[in-house]
Amino acid sequence: MNKGLFFVLLGAIFECGWAYGLKHADSNLEYLITICFICVSFFSFMSAFKYLLASVAYTLFIGFGTLFIVSAEILTDYFNGNSVDYLRLFFIVTLLVGVLGIKGVKN
Known about the structure:
This protein has one domain. It starts with a helix and ends with a helix. The protein is built from 4 helices and no strands. Helix 1 runs antiparallel to helix 2, helix 1 (3-24) packs across helix 3 (54-79) and helix 3 runs antiparallel to helix 4. It is flat. It is an all-alpha fold. Its main location: membrane. Keywords: Membrane, Transmembrane, Transmembrane helix. This is Chaperonin.
């Protein structure tokens, strides 16, 4: 894995964390942690520009970020006893294939 993809994945993981934090934060400490996640996410995303074209980095960042956020939401629903929406899973897999396809075509 090259450094650009590493930074994009790291940023997308922290994007998932801060999106979750914005939804569930109740205290000042939780908001502070969320702000730190935002900073790490954006710094990682900007660091990816040194190794990837901006269009590729942006597409990967948004694709993986969406994948991680929706996957976390699906898992949370599942563990809370809600049923899994298989059509939603299908579209998440389609998104993942598309994002990985963009990365594969670029190489």
